[in-house]
Amino acid sequence: MIFVPAGGLANRIRAALSAIALAQHTGGDVEVLWFQDWALHAAFRDLFSPLSLPPNVRIKEASVCDLWVFDRPRRKNFHVPALFQKLIFDARLYEHQIDALCKGGFDFAEWAARGRTYLAAYLSFYPYPARLLHEVFRPVPEVQAVIDRRCAGFSPYTVGVHVRRTDNALSVEHSPLELFFARIDEELAAHDDLCVYLATDSEEVKQAMRRRYAGRVVCAESKADRSSVQGIREGMADLFTLARTRKVYGSFYSSFSELAAELGGIPLDVVRK
Length: 273
Hints:
By secondary structure, the chain is of the alpha/beta class. The protein contains 13 helices and ten strands. The protein has helices spanning 9-26, 44-47, 64-69, 80-88, 95-103, 108-112, 130-136, 141-151, 169-174, 177-190, 203-212, 229-242, 255-264; strands at residues 2-5, 30-34, 57-61, 91-93, 117-121, 157-163, 194-200, 217-219, 248-251, 268-271. 45% of the residues lie in helices and 17% in strands. Helix 8 (141-151) packs across helix 12 (229-242). Helix 11 (203-212) links the parallel strand 7 (194-200) and strand 8.
């Protein structure tokens, strides 16, 4: 199976883990092709150094040739890859099909046994063991050092807060900042030593949090930036630092919030109207 993870960092991690678990279950081989695009401008090797990969799994940085043969067919590539994929593969599934298939109880294992297959997804579509998450998606040492520095500023009682803004309209609508303030106020009333680790893509949110909770907020100093490797690394450090808090107060419709809690094995409270 050729698998292409799509979307941002959290979406790619969860989708890739699903593909790897599917291959392990069916006994097949899977090659995860990692493309760089507007949603994630970073190579796999810039972010992760896997602890171990199963023998039937290969993760490969996509080449220029791969763009025309194995990339997801869409308007920007004039759907040219679809022509090659019809010739190469016995069965194909694309990201826009996955959600409906999951809701309909589709048998991905049976589908994967059809021969040479192609799958692209940005959703988790197959269950995977927790250990796989930590084995495959292990931060490179440079990112791990940032995570450790941020965690050094934690108090004995630190909660994580992820406030998603910019391009996620549903998070903005359903998880307003005032509700995050209410949750933090409750925590502050119960814990004198409260520290808040804030992960957000909004500079305005950082400023508002710091004004309201002076001296209690730990967060990245740099601005959120998806267009550079350093910016993606900062976001990745946010993800893994949130995972080391007591709990995560997350944004509605955010896989980032969900994955942070999953990584840490900690509670997730989705803040929503």
